[in-house]
Amino acid sequence: MSDRLAELRAAIGWTGPSREDVVEHRHLAAYQHAIGLGTAPDDEVPATFTACFLDEPPSLPAAASYGDGWLNGGDRFEYHAPLRPGDVIRSRPRFTGVVEKYGSAGPMALLTFETEFIRPDGELVVRHVGTRIRK
After folding, report:
1. Are 16 and 93 in contact (CB under 8 A)?
2. Distance (Å, rounded) from C-alpha 42 to C-alpha 29?
3. pTM recorded for the entire structure
């Protein structure tokens, strides 16, 4: 195992900075337009809207030593409770795993991050699981 991969494995469990966001009508309208929902009612907030609240690329310090760029390896959104305009949600990314793969361009690290979007009362609204690639 390379030192770079060992450093990433040692960082599993790292959590990034907390943030608090508000689902605002104007941002929701722009998002709905961008994904082709047109004039969907304001009370229809898709789980994928929380992508607007992700810090990208993740600020994981250990990733700096592995490669020099980020690629998106995919996203999954788990819907747990309705998200509405005006909702305040808190989130904090957590680094949950790494796998090293080899391609024609050499080694790359597939990093998995999980972010839960939670209301102030503790109710889980959306869980995001994202894979980011360093090469």
Report:
1. yes
2. 7
3. 0.89
